[in-house]
Write a structure and sequence with these properties.
Layout (H helix, E strand, L loop, with lengths): L16 H13 L5 E3 L9 H8 L4 E4 L9 E5 L1 H14 L5 E5 L5 H16 L9 E3 L4 H12 L7 E4 L2 H13 L9 E5 L13 E4 L2 H17 L8 E5 L2 E3 L15
Parallel strand pairs: 1-2, 2-3, 3-9, 4-5, 4-6, 6-7, 7-8
Antiparallel strand pairs: 8-10
Helix pairs in contact: 3-4, 5-6
């Protein structure tokens, strides 16, 4: 973007809808040329994003976006991500798998939950309401939910978490309670954050290809700027997910282990 003469303003909502709304107002007041955004976990109403569209400012969504906005979107196949994770955990011998997801009102988390349920059915594994949780996926959320899971009379032997920060919190709790990972409970996170590779044990995680997503989003913005008369419709660019396998889920010797 800098090479094309654009300065980049970076803002974070910290998953707060109110902060997201204030940020959008500030960016509109600043008269930015375009907005590339990933929705906050709390966001349900789309009025502030429609405000961006009403002003004719290019809006490109990545990771978390809603089809109803009918704009450009870049992300991964969230439904397939869950199938890949469950397939791996089944291969490692897991028979009772819990899922800690984001809020299902957000499309990507709804698709991951749907993929998780369908993958369980595919492998003839039980689906129980007590094994699925929704939260903000922060580290402390992972800690609190993992405590609830460990209090279950029939604990799962695998946990799939839709965010690495929550997975790190869950891992901390399991270590504090002397749960052997992955022998007692195998763990898989999501987003392949840098710390996932250096945690002990290393956290298996779904790679979202963030750099490629950023590149596609930036190029889409530049194309919209260069072609202002082009009609804006729902345009989804979907990348294939990849599971990076590390020690937190590798129970069997066969398979590829990424340190």
């Amino acid at each position: 973007m800098n090479a094309k003469g654009y300065n980049v303003i970076i803002a974070q909502s910290n998953e707060s809808y109110k902060k997201e709304c204030r940020t959008i107002d500030a960016l509109l007041f600043t008269q930015v040329d375009g907005i590339i955004a990933s929705m906050a976990n709390e966001t349900v109403k789309l009025d502030y994003y429609n405000k961006i569209k009403a002003k004719g400012i290019p809006l490109i969504l990545f990771d978390r976006g809603e089809n109803d906005l009918n704009v450009d979107y870049v992300g991964i196949d969230d439904y397939m991500s869950s199938h890949i994770v469950i397939e791996h955990l089944v291969e490692q011998g897991c028979k009772r798998i819990a899922h800690i997801g984001g809020f299902s009102h957000t499309r990507i988390y709804k698709n991951r939950i749907r993929g998780y349920i369908d993958a369980l059915k595919k492998h003839n594994l039980p689906f129980e309401d007590s094994l699925i949780y929704e939260c903000n996926l922060r580290k402390n959320d992972g800690r609190e939910v993992m405590k609830k899971i460990l209090d279950l009379p029939n604990r799962p032997d695998g946990v799939y978490i839709s965010g690495d920060y929550a997975a790190l919190g869950a891992l901390e709790v399991m270590k504090e309670q002397n749960i052997k990972v992955p022998k007692d409970i195998a763990l898989v996170g999501f987003s392949n954050e840098p710390f996932s590779a250096i945690a002990t044990p290393g956290i298996s995680s779904v790679e979202q290809h963030s750099e490629k997503i950023g590149e596609l989003a930036a190029n889409t913005f530049l194309r919209r700027i260069a072609n202002p008369e082009e009609e804006v419709t729902l345009n989804k660019m979907i990348l294939n997910p990849e599971l990076i396998v590390r020690a937190s889920s590798l129970r069997k010797s066969k398979g590829h282990l990424t340190k």
